[in-house]
Design a protein that fits this description.
Strand order of the largest sheet: 4-5-8-3-9
Helix content: 40-55%
CATH class of the largest domain: Alpha Beta
Radius of gyration: 22 Å
Order of helices and strands: EEHEHEHHEHEEEHHEHEHHEHHHH
Structural class: alpha/beta
Largest sheet: 5 strands, parallel
Distance between the termini: 43 Å
């Protein structure tokens, strides 16, 4: 099933796993209660948030999205709550925040698990009281916003680690949805691939049977985002009406998790075996590609600090 839900948002979901998710989301949509959308990186958590909004009584009001992990703490506070004139150097005028911009509608907080603890306390206050205070001002004012959060992390584990407030955890997780990884969505892989292909400037309009089989057998660690990049790769190389196996990235055609150069030789002289450094490099670059080049997301998937990832990428140049 491919359906449009408000504006340009499209949902592709033929698989039982997605059908169950969309049915559950439909039950949540009429409520004003906060929702936490969980799932691996690249599964389409924002799309699910837009489904909730498009099927809610707030559908004709704003849907405002912000990636919490993409902004430093001091800038994020101003983005969320706004600031008064002269609140800090460069604040020549008062500015409304995203809570104000989303008034009457939905505010989507992506990667909520990365929010600094100090800001978590301020977010909790807004959720409890329904009031916002701009940075540098004393007055508060009411806002009517439904908050939908998303995370690829285990928030309960973040609470145990002291990285996420327990009271905020229970406040934002009143309702919860888990987006299934692409590897558990069966034929959605092909439906999504064909949809993404319609956006490419290519004469190819389908995939060969062999290419389809490879896509169905692949584990898709980068989920839907990785699939979209694979389709772009195939469309760029295709020379006919169908994308074949030769047009797909090497990680799909190599038959394993990592693509290994045919000429590699191990220390023992066994041909075809890559060194540990080569395997690490291939894996890091594959995850980075699956995350669309976003180093912060790739570092989270790899479980390393962003500065560590940056240093490794510098070594590969």
């Amino acid at each position: 099933m491919v359906s449009r839900v408000g504006g340009s948002t499209l949902v592709v979901g033929r698989s039982p796993a997605m059908q169950a998710l969309l049915k559950r989301a439909g039950r949540f949509a009429p409520s004003d209660a906060p929702v936490t959308v969980m799932g691996e990186t690249g599964t389409g958590k924002e799309v699910v948030a837009r489904v909730l909004h498009a099927n809610s009584p707030r559908a004709d009001k704003p849907f405002v999205a912000v990636n919490v992990a993409a902004l430093p703490a001091e800038l994020l506070e101003s983005e969320l709550f706004g600031h008064g004139k002269g609140a800090f150097t460069g604040a020549a005028n008062a500015r409304r925040g995203l809570f104000e911009a989303a008034n009457g509608g939905t505010l989507f907080l992506d990667e909520i698990g990365e929010m600094p603890l100090a800001l978590q306390a301020k977010l909790l206050r807004v959720l409890q009281d329904g009031e916002v205070r701009r940075v540098g001002e004393n007055a508060t004012f009411a806002v009517d916003v439904r908050v939908v959060c998303a995370t690829h992390r285990d928030l309960a584990e973040r609470v145990r680690e002291g990285q996420f407030r327990e009271d905020l955890y229970y406040r934002v997780k009143v309702l919860s949805l888990t987006v299934p990884p692409l590897r558990d969505r069966g034929t959605d892989v092909l439906a999504l691939a064909l949809y993404f292909l319609t956006d490419e400037k290519t004469e190819a309009c389908t995939f060969t049977d062999a290419a389809q089989q490879l896509m169905l057998e692949y584990a898709w660690p980068g989920n839907v985002r990785e699939l979209q990049n694979v389709v772009k790769h195939g469309a760029a190389l295709a020379q006919g009406p169908a994308i074949g196996t030769d047009d797909l990235p090497e990680e799909l055609t190599s038959g394993g998790s990592f693509a290994q150069p045919a000429g590699d030789v191990s220390a023992a002289g066994a041909p075809g075996l890559a060194t540990l450094a080569e395997v690490e490099r291939a894996h890091i670059l594959r995850v980075l590609d699956a995350c669309g080049g976003a180093q912060s997301e790739a570092a989270d998937v790899l479980g390393i600090a962003r500065t560590t990832l940056w240093r490794k990428l510098r070594q590969y140049e």
